[in-house]
Structure formats: C-alpha cells, structure tokens
Amino acid sequence: MFNKAQTPMSIPYDRQKSNYTHMKILLTAPYENVKALRELESLSDEVIYRSWKPHGRAYNPSELLAMLKETGADGLISEHDEITEEVLRGNPQLKFVGVCRGTPSNIAINVATELGIPVFNTPARNAQAVAEMFIANVITLLRNTIPAVSWLEGKNWGEGAHTSYLEFKGNELAGKKVGMVGFGAVAQHIARMLVSFPAEICYFDPYYNDANTDFRKVELEELFSSCDVIGVHLPVTEETTGMIDKKYLSLMKPGAIFVNTARATVVNREDLLEVIESAQIRGAVLDVFYNEPPDAIDYKMILNKRVLATPHIAGATHEVEDHHAFIMNNNLREFFHNGNKSIQQLVNKGVIEFVK
Question: CA 171, CA 150: separation in Å to the nearest integer?
Fold first, then answer.
C-alpha cells in the first residue's frame, strides 16, 4: 500500500492517474470484482475489505463501531449494515459513507447531514436484473409456463393427445400496453427493453417528464384502466404508502397482469388480495410482501394460482454487485477528485456546505 512517505515517482501508475483522496476506507459491501476493488484502492490511501457476506449477515451497530475504531477508517462503504445515529456520532471523522443500494434506508441520513458527512448511493445498480426478471416473469405468466411444467411432471401427456397445446395456450407480450407507476431508473430500463418487442409504454410520475416520444405520460386512472400489464416502481414515502388501492385496482381489465417488484407497502394489501381472489384480473407477479418472512395474508397471495411469487430476488444477481462497485467508485472519483458536488448519487445534498 502507498503511504505518505513515498515519493510520487514510486506511486503505481494507475494511482498517479487517479489523483486519489487521502482516505482510509472500511469496505463492508461486497466488492468481488477484482478490477473494481483495485480501482477503489487507487482512489484512496488504504482499503480494509471486510465484506458482510462471509459474516453471514449485515453488521450491527456495535460491530461497525468496533471495526471503525480498530481500523481508524475515515470512509465507509456499506450495503446492508445498520449505520445508526450511534455509529455516526461515534465517528464524526468520516469523510463520507457510501451505501451500495438504490434506497439507503439503513443509514440515519439526517444525522449524517448534521455531522457534515456526505452519503452516496448506487441508484440503478439492479436495473438490468429487475428488468430481466420483470419481463421474464410476465412472459411466464402470459404463457402459462408453470402449470404446463406441473402438468408435464405429473405425467399427463397421453398418446396422440393435443391437450397441452390447447390447455396451456397463452399470449405474447408483443403488442401489449404496459404501464409504469413511477418512472425511475428501473422502470425506464424495462421500458427501453419492451419497446423492441414491441410494446406500447405509458407511465405515471408527477416528478418526471421523459423526452422519449415512445413513452407517454398519463394519469393513474387511464393507466390502470387501459393497460394490459401494470408495473409498480415506487419508493416508500408518506405520499406513496398505500397509494395503490381499490380505487385504481378496480379499474384494471379482466385480462390484466399486476406486477410489483418494488415495495409491498405502496399497495393496499387487502384490496390487491380481493381482486386476485375474485379473479377480477388475470393474475399478479409479486416479488415483495408486506412481511418478509410472509405472514398468513401474504401467503394467501403467494399460494394463489393466479400469482407468480418470488422471494424478493428480482435484484439478486452476481452482476448487481459489480454494478454497485463501479457506480460507487465513480461517485468518489467525481465528488472528491473532480470536485463535482452536484452528482445525482449524493443523497443528502444539504451537506455540501459542511463537506470536510
């Protein structure tokens, strides 16, 4: 590792180019991509890599406090660890905290801002992963793939019969109208992929207007009443909690599919269960639930034959960790090395005047 006693001529070439910042970084987020880890090392004095994955769970506040004290780190890059007020107030020397997630819900943001600690996130790290699973599972439901597989495994294929061809005939996604409730990075990624099917795309988002003329902005009532597939892509806020309820779900067409790979609590659970159990819609693709692990009501949806349910894995790919590593590295390069204080990935923008 480079230390301050070395002359510039002895610094590795990649570090000379990086114009790195004098920081010792405790890294608990997975950085299994060797290139990304070496890049991070070139951007700092030292990286102490202690991924939470071999530990078997995210680090709790006591463990973080102990590691920060032991290492003397003045930078922290985390993924799921509990970065509480106690952790932050116990480490006012931190020059930044990086959270390798789209929504940094595991850190006391207000306290970080008060202490002058910039917090960076990695939005869109899982956009490709979620987009692929969204489309794959919608097609799986449209094509009746799961019941067809069960039928085959049940040895129901009779000699000369065309039962499967008739019983499991489904629909194509091409030509369908797909509506996005919320049009952030993930929804936009899905939309760009669907255009090639082709599919008609419309979206509802009061805070965003897309310049792409292939995507049409509409009100929620039109979106729910006219679309064949409706995807929810909302964060949990005071405004969005329970926002999708009977008022909108009751507008859906009988052949429509409801998809939620974002957050369960933005949908009224009882209202969604009602439209599923009463067969008011064709079905639902659900990757998130009110309770994880699920409770009895969640399982009513999970076990319903009209639902394709997965255990919150839409963003679970090995490549997501590569994405978050390179996004975070770029955050540090832009903010500290290039002096770009207006990067999108700075979560607490009010911290600028206090930056160390």
Answer: 19
